[in-house]
Amino acid sequence: MLGNIKISAETIEKLPLASIIYDENFSIKMLNTKAQQAIQFNRQIINHRKLLPLLRKSMSTDIPLMKYIICASKSYQYFFSRIVDKDKYYILVSINLTWPYQHEYERYKEESEGLNAIFKCTYDALYISDHQGKTLRVSAACKQLWGVSEEQLIGKNVLELEREGVYQPSITRLVLENNKKISTVQQTKNNKRLLVVGTPIKNKQGEIMRVINASRDITNIKNLQQEIHHLTSIIHNYQHELSQQDSQSISPLIYQSKQLEAVVALAKRVAAVDSTVLILGETGVGKEVFANYIHDMSERKTKPFLKINCSAIPENLLESELFGYEKGAFTGANREGKIGLFELAHNGTLLLDEIGDMPPALQIKLLRVIQEKTLQRIGSAKTIPINVRFIAATHRNLAEEVTKGNFREDLYYRLNVIPIHVPPLRDRKEDILPLASHFLTNLNNKYYSAKTFNTSFAHKLTTYNWPGNIRELQNVIERCYVMSDSDYLTSETLAMALNENKKEKSVLVKDIMPLKKCVEYAEMELLQMAFATCQSTVDMAKLLEVNQSTISRKMAKFNIR
Question: What's the pLDDT score for residue 374?
Fold first, then answer.
């Protein structure tokens, strides 16, 4: 208990916390300005129902009391103390209004310290601007690269610095003008050449909030290709860290294309509900990866996630795998019986891969399970309730299969609640290089190496049609990794890998013939290979490094259509 004190407005006003004086009838006698402001903001601060038991307890004891009370979804600290003034007892209630924000402050402080460490230690120069081009932050390497200090850059607009010749061009300006990621070479006033990657950071409405530039000195271009590849990896990491600061969720999927961005956004929305999902797409596009993503983003992420390939298991075994069976249900059955995947996936997610190949006899049983959320094991009459989120995937056109009578119409509509179509890799070529870099990085990490690829290799990757989609790309990158004797994957290595993969023909001279005729045979075969790979004569010209008119003339000559 506090000693005898004189209760006055001046005394309570000096208290550091929002403070209220209650009399012996538990009515408010006095409060300071901090408490008045808190009450104006939220009347629940002095919720009589919550405070009355604590006031009574404090009035009956000399021991101060501290409690946490939730007001407006936030937990505040309340301190109760009995005081005496002129032989009358009062209760002083002090409220720590900053308490709910202390944990959040500590978290942001820790993240800020981590970001500061990146700025100080990185070999690259980081340059952050706002949506109007105002310089917000730069790393210490700016003095070496641009010849000016941090103090001379921060607060200035990139347009002003560009006019002063500090750097040409301003990558931030190019990003803001084009509303997309920009990578180009920059010249500084101290005659350095920098490779700069400018990345826009956008909010949920698609508006640019920040522009992050990562700059590396390439004045010495001896290892230019290796530097470009390494810088690309670094900017992805920086973008990931800075996006975390803005509390934006980070997708584990590797992509840059607008097409896949829309698919990922849909998958993220679907993950928040338990609706049945049908994932469509060609073989190798990553349907199972999207199923994993939906499960991992859902509230079921800590529960089982089971997968079954409906085309890989014989019909007579598929039913027992899904439904399970009782002991002695059939000849050869396990003596103890078996729990099926439906039961094992209870409260979790079940992926039915290649659902288009499910036998017709099982389709009606699956429909019943999805509709009624119950099942019966083989050899049992007992009904078992289940809570399973179903995701189906197939490379087939189920609507056409329904028309042909190969797939039940009612099951199709049960599965087709939320359809997600994953486009093939040839329709989203922007994703090829990020995926290739990802696969190569995994191989480097696994085998403790540092292999990279050059520009011609990257060009061939993006011009190839990838009929096997991401699975083929991953296999080809691994094949090139193994075949390459050096730390650089070249276009020649890729050509060898693709020839092995596609078993394409090549010119083989077995007899003596006129040189002109041999050249014509080689040209015709090369054009046929390019025609089968590319989507237009323009792409063929880029691949074969000739003019488009030459391609058109020679295709007409050899009657290639």
Answer: 92
